[in-house]
Amino acid sequence: MSANKLAVVVALLATLAGAPAGAAVSAVSGEAQRYEGGATFQEIIESRCTICHTRERVDAAIRSQSDLDALLRRMVERGAIISERDHKVLGTFWGSPLKGDGQSPAPPAR
Predict the structure, then answer these.
(1) For residue 109, is it within any domain?
(2) How confident is the model over 14-63, as pLDDT tens digits?
(3) Is residue 89 part of a domain?
(4) Which ranges of the chain does DSSP label H, i.e. alpha helix?
(5) Which domain holds residue 11?
(6) Number of domains observed in the structure of the chain
(7) 20 to 30 A Cα–Cα from 96, which one of 19, 61, 62, 107?
């Protein structure tokens, strides 16, 4: 596993396990906002991932299209509690809104 992937896993694990449920979001920014639900995606990233990492580092992990399911599975194995809602939102937008290729995100799983 690359150092960046490991860092993302550790950051998400740490933030999901320790972030207050109502963590404030200072700013919702990024390309994902233009899609329905994109603001929620940004809120999850801002309230959880950026506690330990810069937004640039998180965006790089998103752009690399790391296998989100594998990443989340490893986090859960290490004790993270990931809500079904967070998993659905992250799964909808992971890799798509920030790729820069103009593609719309994949439709939510049914």
Answers:
(1) no
(2) 555 554 443 333 333 444 444 556 788 888 778 777 766 688 977 887 78
(3) yes
(4) 3-18, 38-48, 55-63, 68-77, 84-93
(5) 3-19+30-93
(6) 1
(7) 19
Q: Of 65, 74, 96, 85, nearest to 11 (Cα)?
A: 74
Q: Please indicate, yes or no, if residue 106 is contained in any of the structural domains.
A: no
Helix axes 3-18, 68-77, angle to 10 degrees: 60
Query: How many CA atoms, within 13 angstroms, populate the side-chain half-sphere of residue 35?
Result: 23
In this prediction, residue 99 carries a pLDDT of: 42
Q: How far apart are the first and last CA of the chain?
A: 31
> Stretch 90-95: mean pLDDT, rounded?
74
CA 25, CA 31: separation in Å to the nearest integer? 16
Mean pLDDT computed over every residue of the chain: 64
**100 within a domain of the structure (yes/no):** no
Q: Report residue 79 CA to chain centroid gap.
A: 17
pLDDT of residue 12: 59
